[in-house]
Automatic annotation (TrEMBL):
One of its GO terms (molecular function) is acylphosphatase activity. The keyword Hydrolase applies. Belongs to the acylphosphatase family. Residues 3-90 form the Acylphosphatase-like domain. It is an enzyme of class 3 (hydrolase). This is Acylphosphatase. The active site is at residues 18, 36. Keywords: Hydrolase. Its EC number is 3.6.1.7. The lineage of its organism: Bacteria, Bacillati, Bacillota, Bacilli, Bacillales.
Length: 90
């Protein structure tokens, strides 16, 4: 199990992007969270098998039909805690 810390920049707030991310995470059987940042980006912590995370990141880079993803930063995170589901954090 790996954890990825992901920051997505572009037109990703106010366009249903967090719900899209949650749906894609659940489809890939990942756990973690997604939230809006004050700087207009969206931040994600996703946990799961490497192959599932790779598919998830590919989906996030494309975004949903209302978003315009400009930049995606992915870093492997030190697993500090394990999550039971994938939630939208506020």
């Amino acid at each position: 199990m790996l954890q990825y810390h992901i920051v997505v920049e572009g037109r990703v707030q106010g366009v249903g992007f967090r719900y899209f991310v949650q749906s894609e995470a659940e489809k890939n059987k990942l756990t973690g969270w997604v939230k809006n940042r004050m700087d207009g980006a969206v931040e994600i912590l996703a946990e799961g098998p490497e192959e599932s995370l790779a598919d998830f990141v590919e989906s996030v880079q494309k975004g949903n039909r209302f978003s315009r993803v400009r930049n995606v930063t992915v870093e492997e995170a030190a697993a500090t805690e394990s999550y039971k589901n994938f939630a939208i954090a506020y």
